[in-house]
Design brief:
Blueprint: H1 2-19, H2 29-41, H3 46-56, E1 62-65, H4 67-80, H5 87-106, E2 110-113, H6 114-117, H7 120-133, H8 144-150, H9 164-180, H10 188-196, E3 203-204, E4 224-225, H11 227-240, E5 245-250, E6 260-265, E7 273-275, E8 297-299, H12 305-311, E9 326-328, H13 330-333, E10 336-342, H14 347-350, E11 354-360, E12 365-374, E13 377-384, E14 387-394, E15 400-402, E16 407-409, E17 415-417, E18 421-430, H15 438-445, E19 451-455, E20 464-468, E21 478-481, E22 488-494, E23 505-510, E24 518-523, E25 554-563, E26 565-571, E27 584-590, E28 595-602, E29 609-616, E30 620-624, E31 633-637, E32 640-643
Parallel strand pairs: 3-4
Antiparallel strand pairs: 1-2, 5-6, 5-8, 6-7, 8-9, 10-13, 11-12, 11-14, 12-13, 14-15, 14-16, 16-17, 18-29, 19-20, 19-22, 21-26, 22-25, 23-26, 24-25, 27-28, 27-30, 30-31, 31-32
């Protein structure tokens, strides 16, 4: 009997093999079954070509599995099933799960290949569902190749596979069926988008460790999630009803820490509209003036030829590029430059066919791109501008080793090496350890025109302005002399229009240089939670007064005894990355291999450090050894810190 079964199996496999006129050495048995199903029923159809597309690229896709990952998903699924809670509750539960299962999630991870798990029935159901939603009134203007790339794929990440299409079709069709019954019109795709991308509770969790992909059928129950989680949700929602979308990501911002992922609507091969949950099309990068893009990649289902040469090179490959399914779309988002740079002649560099471009993430260099070495040079194509890069080699131990000097791709596209000149040194003036963002500049601007007043009447009916704030160019403590020739019982800060009262700290000094005792605080209320007017005088630089209304904000005190004010020390709303009195700082420069120390010093009351003997043309880093996490590389140009 066993002999007969073996013969039968051989016959079946032979029939399946001969039925397909393609190279099928990597096809699974289930994939071949699906291929035969469509070949027999509709041999020249697009569905037959669709199954070929899926199984041709299936071998690089997998589900990420471990005991910890399964436990994490179950834990969070139970959390999301509880009655709706505040966002802080979900953040706490995420942190708890990451701490509890973190080691189990990252250790002993197993990649379960789709070729071993995907069934013919699953593939056929996926294809039939995707085709059923194609060519509806909102999907009239994209071809078959576009359909395969951006609608057909049966998974959205490395999640456990599930029957997500039918679930989200049932959810979304009730919202968009009005378009299905309308006259055919390509522009209905935008109406469909606007309808589907609403009402998502998209509070973001910033993970303290590895967070796995949730099953696609679970995504709609996630109350708080990572940017990737919400991107996956919209991928599933839109693809289920035939709307072509993809997930793009920046592996590391060029000007700050962290990566980011989002969704793009792709009505056809020419148009690309990035968006996040509840956003208008293409608004996703509005308000991100400080976020520079070094590289942007698109997650594809199909293998990309540009990456296959790297993944098949036999060299160790960084985790970012282990999967050959990333498409470089950087020039879709930002002007780019091909940068050719000279590299070191060290053994680790000479032995590498491929080198990498890395950017700084506030603490370390993170790989964002790759290039093929040619002699003593390497070219990195399509690099985003206004970013500093470091060429690195990637070792078999998973380490990044400097392979050349850092270089700046400037706004005009020029490539400028940053080589420290230790033979020529200078004195630099430092006020911060982290970039001076557009938001911080706005907060400084909100104090300009603010007035300090004194009075002997509690309603300030006899108020006298003793000082007015001029232009504020730096986020730190500022000292303002007061014109006050007698004593007063009351003092207040009257903020300018449009400022919401924003002020972090005010210190008042009398004619002897002492801080007078305060009897009580009062002023305009209706502040946002946790930002009442008392925060102006609480001694905490990270708290501030923030009124709900932009105008008519003021915060006042009554002195224990009438006081003659000599000067005021004030601090705009800020991020606490300015120079703090009494805290320990150290300045470093990049010496070609690492950040080397120049000097260690203590912060002063002025909030300004003057450091001698700093190499010119150097890439610099200022670290606070007392506290804090945020620090950023900078150059020193025309007497100012220039942040990268």
């Amino acid at each position: 009997m066993k002999h007969i079964l073996n013969i039968f199996t051989i016959i079946v496999m032979t029939i399946l093999s001969s039925a397909c006129n393609r190279e099928e050495n990597n096809y699974s048995l289930e994939g071949r079954k699906a291929l035969v199903f469509y070949k027999d029923s509709m041999p020249n159809s697009l569905r037959y070509k669709a199954i070929q597309f899926l199984i041709d690229n299936m071998d690089v896709h997998y589900t990420l599995h471990s005991e910890g990952i399964d436990s994490f998903r179950l834990y969070m699924d139970n959390v999301f099933r509880l009655p709706t809670q505040e966002d802080a509750f979900y953040n706490f539960k995420y942190d708890t799960a990451v701490m509890r299962y973190g080691n189990l999630m990252e250790k002993a991870q197993e990649r379960i290949p789709d070729t071993a798990t995907v069934t013919a029935e699953y593939l056929i159901a996926n294809i039939d569902s995707a085709f059923r939603m194609w060519k509806t009134t909102w999907n009239m203007d994209y071809d078959f190749e576009h359909f395969c790339n951006y609608v057909l794929p049966y998974r959205v990440g490395h999640e456990p596979l599930s029957q997500w299409r039918e679930k989200y079709i049932a959810q979304q069709m009730s919202k968009v069926d009005k378009f299905a019954n309308s006259q055919e019109n390509y522009y209905y795709v935008y109406g469909t988008y606007s309808t589907v991308n609403r009402g998502i509770h998209a509070a973001v969790y910033y993970p303290k460790g590895f967070v796995p992909d949730f099953p696609a059928t679970q995504l709609d129950s996630v109350r708080v999630g990572t940017c990737r989680t919400f991107a996956d949700l919209n991928i599933a929602r839109f693809r289920s009803i035939g709307v072509p979308v993809a997930k793009d990501f920046v592996p590391q911002w060029g000007s700050r820490s962290m990566s980011h992922e989002w969704v793009v609507l792709l009505p056809n091969e020419k148009l690309c509209f990035p968006f996040g949950p509840n956003e208008h099309l293409s608004d996703h990068f509005f308000g991100r003036e400080d976020h520079t893009l070094p590289k942007v990649f698109r997650h594809m289902y199909a293998k990309q030829k540009a990456l296959l040469s790297l993944t098949n090179s036999g060299e160790p490959v960084p985790p970012l590029f282990e999967s050959p399914t990333l498409m470089d779309v950087t020039d879709t988002y930002t002007p780019t430059t091909d940068a050719t740079v000279r590299i070191f002649n060290t053994p680790q560099v000479k032995d590498s066919k491929y080198l990498y471009a890395a950017v700084f993430d506030n603490h370390d260099w993170q790989i964002v791109h790759w290039g093929k070495r040619r002699g003593r040079h390497v070219t990195f194509d399509r690099l985003g501008r206004k970013v500093v890069y470091l060429p690195v080699a990637y070792t078999r131990y998973g380490e990044s080793v400097p392979a050349g000097h850092p270089f700046l791709v400037a706004e005009d596209g020029t490539v400028q090496p940053l080589i420290s000149d230790t033979a020529h040194r200078r004195t630099v003036r430092l006020t911060r350890k982290y970039r001076f963002t557009y938001w911080l500049k706005e907060l400084c601007r909100r104090t300009e025109g603010g007035r300090f007043q004194v009075s002997n009447c509690e309603d300030f009916s006899d108020s006298v302005t003793i000082a007015t704030i001029g232009r504020i160019k730096e986020s730190r403590f500022h000292t303002q002399p007061a014109i006050c020739d007698t004593t007063y019982r009351y003092f207040r800060y009257l903020s300018p229009k449009g400022s919401y009262g924003n002020m972090a700290e005010i210190e008042i000094y009398d004619s002897l240089g002492n801080r007078p005792s305060i009897k009580k605080m009062f002023g305009e209320r209706w502040a946002t939670p946790g930002c009442n007017l008392e925060k102006v005088f609480d001694g905490d630089v990270l708290t501030c007064y923030n009124r709900q209304f932009p105008d008519d904000s003021w915060a006042a005190v009554e002195f224990e005894n009438p006081t003659q004010v000599s000067h005021i020390r004030f601090l705009p709303r800020n991020d606490d990355n300015f120079i703090r009195e009494g805290e320990q700082y150290e300045l470093y420069y990049w010496d070609g291999r690492r950040f080397a120390s120049i000097a260690r010093m203590e912060g002063n009351r002025e909030g300004v450090l003057h450091v001698d003997s700093v190499p010119t043309h150097a890439l610099l880093l200022l670290r606070n050894h007392t506290k804090g996490q945020e620090e950023r590389i900078f150059t020193y140009e025309n007497g100012e810190q220039v942040w990268w």
